[in-house]
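Practice problem 4.
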């Protein structure tokens, strides 16, 4: 039973680690998009005969990109909070897994001691029977 619980906790931990990796990947994608958008804000300019030829339109465009960055930051903060929660869950699962592993090791040691004791008793009986037969 303890073995099954230990395996379950290991499986749950692995699943949480995969979930953590996905969230970290999402955060990195958001960071990349924020950097790209910030770069566009910094390099966007007015061309004489281009699509954006009015300073007010340029300001609206830059404000739209800044709003996009704010939305991305909010989404990133949500992911960061979720990541913190998952990290805490991973730590708890690892603690439980280590506890079950310790119990399993203790059971194995007890089983080994029991086997050694049985072997010792058998050997003692054999030696005693050998001396009695002489």
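Answer key:
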């Amino acid at each position: 039973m303890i073995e099954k619980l230990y395996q379950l906790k290991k499986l749950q931990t692995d699943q949480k680690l995969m979930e953590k990796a996905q969230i970290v990947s999402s955060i990195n994608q958001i960071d990349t998009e924020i950097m790209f958008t910030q770069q566009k804000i910094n390099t966007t300019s007015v061309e004489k005969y281009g699509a954006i030829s009015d300073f007010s339109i340029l300001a609206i465009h830059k404000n739209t990109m800044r709003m996009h960055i704010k939305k991305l930051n909010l989404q990133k903060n949500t992911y960061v909070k979720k990541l913190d929660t998952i990290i805490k869950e991973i730590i708890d699962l690892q603690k439980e897994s280590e506890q079950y592993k310790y119990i399993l090791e203790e059971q194995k040691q007890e089983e080994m001691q029991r086997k050694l004791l049985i072997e010792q008793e058998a050997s003692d009986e054999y030696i005693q029977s050998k001396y009695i037969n002489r």
